[in-house]
Write a structure and sequence with these properties.
Rossmann fold; globular; 37% helix; 2 domains; 4-stranded parallel beta sheet; single chain; alpha/beta
């Protein structure tokens, strides 16, 4: 059963900032075609050299007053890889793959790539799109789930860039404004889920072939921990998603789907168990964050009769620094100390199913595909085109202007 949300009555004044005419009413799903003329690929950004690391981390933590000495503790992760985050190169590869698929389908849609925290910045991408004559933009953010940092903050970025305050471009104002809509969150789109399923199937299948008992295999679906207060505020306010909000509920639903499919396709895997775990916590000890930590869970597995563990980076679209450091380094070491066979399964990256799925999402908005016809693999989807009131509030900052959603 999909989430039901009341259709918002047509209003004389826009309720959604910087939206295309089709999205301004605030209806949850835009089911009329929109002639978008360009795509904005929006991402987090990352340093590309040792000299970039601290300035990048200052951008990430702006407004929080964190001294450089503290930032240097995190910087060691980047310095281990020469000061280069993999995320920018991964976005270049994704942009190229999307352009190839868009061209294959005969869609005339250029892609402009911009980041929140490092070059190329979103301001530059939107300004270039405007200079090239494009006014009706559709944003695709490289985050699949509901939370402040993975959803609302991108929508705040779009509003900030299009506005005239805080160094914005002002391009969303005046007689010929630029508009930005955003594709729906794709946590349960088949194209996003397929690469994770393939990784799980292959890892479990190899262990079963090697004689491991299914009960001795554990799947740990890992995602970025976030403050509990932000998790509780994720998702529409008129729906109770449980203690971890929509953020945790979405991950659990996708993980459950993958395991259910695994057991259906590999009957010998019936006794393979799983947990949702969290990683990459960065807040002070006094602040509650989502738990349990992946390393703590790994340490407990031998006492439960587990011999092999597959860590599935379910919260990540590609091999971000958190995957390379926190999983391929720290979690792998935890498994070695526990005497467990360890596999970290793949992220979607530029897997053909993922790339096709993202372009499918773009075509949904071009065509105005009815919500009832949109693919999704959990009962939580398909997610909304226009975020609902109060969705993904930041517990510390409250609400700031955001595009692609109804103002609180």
């Amino acid at each position: 059963m999909s989430i039901e949300a009341p259709q918002t009555a047509q209003q004389t004044e826009p309720t959604v900032l910087h939206a295309s005419p089709a999205a301004r009413s605030g209806a949850p799903f835009v089911e009329t075609p929109v002639a978008y003329d360009a795509i904005v690929l929006a991402s987090f950004g990352g340093p590309e050299g040792q000299d970039d690391v601290i300035p990048f981390l200052r951008n990430v933590t702006r407004g929080r007053g964190i001294p450089d000495e503290r930032l240097e503790e995190v910087a060691t992760h980047y310095r281990h890889f020469g000061g280069v985050s993999p995320i920018n190169e991964q976005n270049r590869a994704l942009k190229a793959a999307l352009e190839e698929e868009i061209a294959r389908r005969g869609l005339d849609l250029p892609i402009y790539w911009g980041n929140r925290n490092w070059h190329p910045f979103l301001e530059d991408a939107v300004s270039q799109a405007h200079a090239d004559g494009h006014r009706t933009l559709l944003a695709l953010a490289t985050s699949a789930y509901s939370s402040y940092s993975s959803d609302r903050q991108y929508r705040e970025d779009f509003a900030r860039v299009l506005g005239s305050d805080e160094g914005g471009t002002g391009l969303g104002e005046g007689d010929d404004p630029v508009t930005i809509d955003k594709v729906r969150l794709f946590f349960d789109h088949p194209g996003f889920v397929e690469p994770f399923y393939e990784g799980v199937r292959d890892a479990v299948g190899r262990w079963l072939d090697d004689g491991y008992a299914a009960s001795g295999i554990r799947l740990l679906f890992s995602t970025h921990s976030i403050p509990t207060g932000d998790a509780q505020r994720s998702g529409p306010r008129d729906r109770d998603f449980g203690e971890g909000g929509a953020y945790e509920a979405q991950h659990r639903a996708v993980a459950a789907h993958i395991v259910e499919r695994l057991r259906a396709e590999l009957p010998q895997a019936q006794d393979v168990d799983w947990n949702l775990v969290f990683q990459s916590r960065s807040g002070p000890p006094s602040q509650p964050w989502l738990e349990p930590d992946v390393n703590d869970v790994i340490a407990e597995l031998p006492a439960q009769g587990v011999r092999a563990v597959a860590v599935v980076p379910l919260g990540f679209v590609s091999d971000h620094m958190e995957v390379l450091w926190d999983l391929d380094n720290e979690a792998k070491q935890s498994a070695a100390e526990a005497g467990l066979d360890f596999v970290r399964t793949r992220t979607p990256g530029v897997h053909p199913a993922f790339v096709r799925g993202l372009v499918d999402l773009i075509e949904e908005r071009l065509d105005g595909t009815p919500a009832a016809e949109r693919p999704h693999v959990t009962d939580l989807g398909p997610w909304f085109d226009v975020s609902r009131p109060g969705d993904c509030e930041n517990a510390r900052l409250g609400f700031r202007p955001a595009a692609a959603g109804i103002a609180p």
